[in-house]
Every structure is written in structure tokens, then in C-alpha cells.
Amino acid sequence: MDQKTNFTSKELLEKKFSTTNRGYDPYEVDSFFDKIIEDYEKIEAIAALNGIDVDKILKELDELKKVNSQLEEELEQEKNKWKYISKDHKDIHIDNYELLQRIGKLEMIIYEKLHINPDEIR
Description:
The chain is mostly helical. The chain is built from four helices and two strands, in the order H-E-E-H-H-H. The chain folds into three domains: about 1-50, no CATH class; about 55-85; about 85-120. The chain is rod-shaped and about 115 Å long. The termini are far apart.
């Protein structure tokens, strides 16, 4: 099947018909519309071959928009839950060096209670 259309959108827009004593030439106008109908039939056939169902696509798009909206709301709720917890918060701020110091102190307490010399552990 030939997929090339008879006209471009620009050609359709710029089309000028010849006139007769009674107005436009009806045969010329009729012939022009016949070619436009051919183009529409080609476009519809291509869409059918490609399995394009515009109504189905629009319905899916609406559903995806709803899901997206719900996810955005959930994201905002989660952001609000965690907005006070950050590295810059005075009560929560802790860096790796401080963690290592705390772990070291806890290890020393354990070693003392268990009477273990950490230098002998291998």
C-alpha cells in the first residue's frame, strides 16, 4: 500500500480553486475532496495496521496522570516526614569520625568487661 499522501497540510491550507460564472468549479472541488478522502483513508489504514487506538491511548494517559498525581502527593508526604532530619540539624548531626570514636569507646568497655586485650585479637 502506498503510504504517501496526496497533500501536505500546507498545500491544503493554500489551495485556491478556479471560479466560473456561478462560483467555484464543482468538478475541481469534488476532485480535490476525493483526494483528501483518499489521504484520510490511508491515515486510518496506517493507524489500524499499527494497532493505534486513540481512545485507549487517551484513557491510559488519564490513568497515568492520576497515578503520577498520587505519587507526587506521597512524595510530598514523605518529604514532610523527613524534613527535620538532616545533617545540618544540631541534635542529629554526626559524622563518620564521631561514629568511629563512639564505636572505639564501646569496644574498649566490652574488652574491659570481658577481660580481653584487643592487641591480642587476630
